[in-house]
Amino acid sequence: MENFSLSYLNPIWPELFLAVAGMVLLVVGVLRGNSSTRFICVGAMAAFVGALFLMAGQEITNEPILNEMFIQNNFTFFMKMLVVGGLITSLALSVQYLYQDNIIKFEYPILVLFSGVGMMLMISANDMLSLYMGLELQSLALYVLATIKRDHAKSAESGMKYFVLGAISSGMLLFGISLVYGFTGSTNFDVIGTTLATELSLGAVIGFVFILSALAFKISAVPFHMWTPDVYEGAPTSVTALFALVPKVAAIALIIRLLFVPFAALSDQWFQIMWLLAFLSMAVGAFAALRQDNIKRLMAYSSISNVGFALIGIVAGGETGVSAVLVYLTLYMIMTAGVFGIIMCMRRDGVGLENISDLSGLSKNAPWLAYPLAILMFSISGIPPLAGFFSKFVIFQAAIESGLYTLAVFGILTSVVAAYYYLRIIKVMFFDEALDKFESSIEFSRKIIIVLSVFVTVAFIFNPSPLIEISKLAVQDLF
Question: Is pTM, for the whole model, over 0.90?
Fold first, then answer.
């Protein structure tokens, strides 16, 4: 310890900064009460922007720190930038909604901030213990956010389901970690990888399966998806937007690091598991959504389907497959942000609306909402030449190059099925009889997010190279 220097903490300064900012904002909230909610929301967004600047100024060394518990490399840098961008977006979407839906609680932005700290620690974890601490910090904050509207029965019910099933997944994760530790003698990623490469034990494989099952719950992969539709529907829409934008991205980043660093030697085993998860997620996400009339439940099944597409890239493996996953996640987050920005505008007489039928005739009453939503629906369904088509194209291209013909063909077929419920929304907006107008008051930040989402969706195809090159650079440290 006598040689300790603050420079050792350089890779973790963004997380430390966010943690301190969260505690300061918590004190402000306690002293000023719920009247400070808007101020704390802006403060939390400013803290995330500060974290982005700190990350941008870091030197990426790819060297473990803090007794090899934490690592910063190009992959973790890319994923944390993506996560922080998603958190800023979710808070920007939330500010007006909190007041509209009478959720004026200063704890809301602070919980989002601490969940962000957990996600960033989780992405950079280089040890099973730091992985678990980051994962639980994220999860506990999200459990509370799901039930933050305490006087609402659906919100309380969804939060309870999320908490109970989340507790089960945490137990599975800890049991898996204990087995891996018992059969490899370490919780460090590098040591586990070296041990499994020289001596493969059945106990470690079983522990790995438990760990992967727990993380499959976090990304809503089938058959661990049962919580997703209920939580998406019951939670406040701003919280649903957060769930759709960020936690899955952080969890997929963690899964990628686990599969290609400590458990790379188990590729024959996890290939089969991930193949099945991708196949089932695409199937359930496409067909179960056909019967949904609640747009938040529909987006839940859409997210399950999109997780299946992302998992195809992981199954394909290699730099091509994983970089395709990064491209897919980035574009998916941008498109989803725009969609939820529009869903939050579905209000009439002071009441938030959630049914697809409430969009009837929207093109006549509010074309400034109908046309952006139509573009985003076309894109998510994979209609060329929009960004959503390109994101699926790179995934299927990686699958074909790896010989995963069955998975690629099935993915294309489920995309066709899923296009039905996306196009159904467009049909309702443009061809059904118009209902009363939505409330016209839309906060400036929400307008900006919708406009940027649509702009990127349309303009991306003209110059996709920068994102592709950055994604390829990001995954090099994994291989």
Answer: yes
